[in-house]
Every structure is written in structure tokens, then in C-alpha cells.
Amino acid sequence: MHFTAKVLLEIVAALGTLSSLAFYAISGCGIVSFLNARHKKSAQPPSHLPAVSILKPLKGIDPEMWDSFCSHCEQDYPEYELIFGVSDPADPAISLVRRLQQEYPQRDIQLVISDRTLGTNTKVSTLAQMVPAARHGVLLVNDSDIRVAGDYLRRVITPLTDASVGLVTCLYRGVATGTLGSRLEALGISTDFVPAY
After folding, report:
1. Domain range for residue 172?
2. CB under 8 Å to 70, separation ≥6 — which residues?
């Protein structure tokens, strides 16, 4: 009886391992297919890119937040605005937004201080109060710790020029700092988050 239970347990473990490997193999095929399709589409740049409102809800100061903000101000894109939002009028991130407005006077940069609490999720409440400030019909939402390349907006918004596309999402990767926790989080993003999408 003991031998049968051991064999059954080994079979279940083997099946679990094989199904996990199959999941990662299918995820890998999906990534390759996605990248090939994206490469074919990117060969034909659109003639018109829509104006974009970038919504960035903030709470406190993140590491390298200033560099992340600056990367959004240095986009190779015809027309866009940045809308930052906070729920606390004493939030320390406000000083960085004010500094950004001074450093990039050519950019349309707004700060919305949300004076109401709508529901239990503070971030969603802040976003809901930022939307009325947006001047453009295309909304892009990303967090304060996201740093982007100069062609980010072109790459993200270009699929929306296809009438059959109504929503675009982006994968991101974690960049580890010197701590073990940071390294584990970056590893988790690379191995679990990306294949899950």
C-alpha cells in the first residue's frame, strides 16, 4: 500500500512538472508570435498619431522618480500632456512635479490635487478626479516608477491607429537594486508576471 501511494505521488509530481513546462513553452511561443506580428506592423508608421493625455497618480517619493518623470517629458511624439494627481495636498511628490514644470516649460504638465475620496481605492479615486483635466481623447495611465524610452508613446499609441484596436497594455520589467527583496521581485516579474499575460 505504501509503495502505491509513493508511485502515485511521483506520477502527480511528474504531471505537475510537465504541465508547468508546457505552460512556459506555450508562453514562449506566444511571445515569439507577438514580437513577429509587432515587427511586421511597425514597418509601416502611421500617418497621424492622436494626441495623448498621460495620467500619473502619485503617492510619496519612489526611488529614481525624477528620472522616470523626465523620461516622460522627453518623448518623440507630436502632442501629449502629463497630468499628475495626488490625494494629499502635503504629498512630497508635489515638489517634484513643480520642479518638472519649471525644468520643462515647453511641456503641458498639470497637477491635480484630489479633494474627495471616491470609494475605498485611493489610486482609483485620484485617477477618477484626474480624468476631467485631460484635454485629449486618448488616455494613457502609468505609475510613478515607470521609466520609458524616447519612443515609448509612439510604440504604445501606434496600435490605436488601427480601428479594430480599442485598448493597449504594456508589459514592464523590474530592475533590481542592491537588496535581496528587489532582486526577488525583479525575478518574479520576469518569470511569472510576463508569461501570465
Report:
1. 167-197
2. 100, 103, 104
Identify the helix (H) or strand (E) that includes residue 197. none
| Beta partners for residue 113, in sequence order | 86
In a domain, 150, yes or no: yes
**Chain centre distance of CA 24:** 22
* Closest by Cα among 41, 53, 67, 33 to 137: 53
Q: Is residue 38 part of a domain?
A: no
Q: Minimal CA–CA distance to 160: which of 190, 139, 184? A: 139
Of 95, 93, 83, 101, nearest in space to 59 by CA: 93
- Condensed to tens digits (0 to 9), the pLDDT of residues 55-99 reads 999 999 888 899 999 999 999 999 999 999 999 999 999 999 999
| Residue 151 to residue 80: CA distance in whole angstroms | 13
| pLDDT surpassing 60 at residue 44 | no
